[in-house]
Amino acid sequence: MAGEKKYKKAKIKYPLKDYNYRIIGIGLGVCALGFILLAAGSTVIAPILLVLGYCAIIPFGILYRRKE
After folding, report:
1. Domain annotation covers residue 16
2. Which of 14, 38, 59, 60 lies 20 to 30 Å (CA to CA) from residue 29?
3. What is the pTM of this model?
4. Can you state the percent helix, strand and coil of the chain, rounding each to 5?
5. How many domains does the structure of the chain reveal?
6. CB-CB contact of 36 with 45 (8 Å)
7. pLDDT the model gives residue 2
8. Cα(2)–Cα(32) distance, rounded to whole angstroms?
9. pLDDT truncated to tens, each residue of the chain (68 aa)?
């Protein structure tokens, strides 16, 4: 018992919450739908969905913070 140090458990604080992961998941779903439509030959809607998913929804999911 002599010389033993007691360590406190460090509480890990994650930067992203569950709602952030949900928004990112929606963005990935929109991107997947865009790739499916692109493979099907829709050259109008597919690029719009891909740009929307990659440039708007996923970054919004990363940066969004709720007011607490």
Report:
1. no
2. 14
3. 0.79
4. 60, 0, 40
5. 1
6. no
7. 60
8. 59
9. 566 677 777 788 888 999 999 999 999 999 999 999 999 999 999 999 999 999 999 999 999 998 87
Does some domain include residue 47? Answer: yes
Q: Which amino acid is at 8?
A: K
pLDDT, position 12: 83
Domain assignment present for residue 12? The answer is no
7, 23 contact by CB (below 8 A): no
φ/ψ region of 37 (left if φ > 0, alpha if ψ in -120 to 50, else beta) reads alpha
What the block records as the tokens of 32 is 């997947």
Q: What is the pLDDT of residue 19?
A: 95
For residues 29 and 52, the answer to whether their CB atoms sit within 8 Å is no
If residue 43 lies in a helix (H) or strand (E), which one and from where to where? none
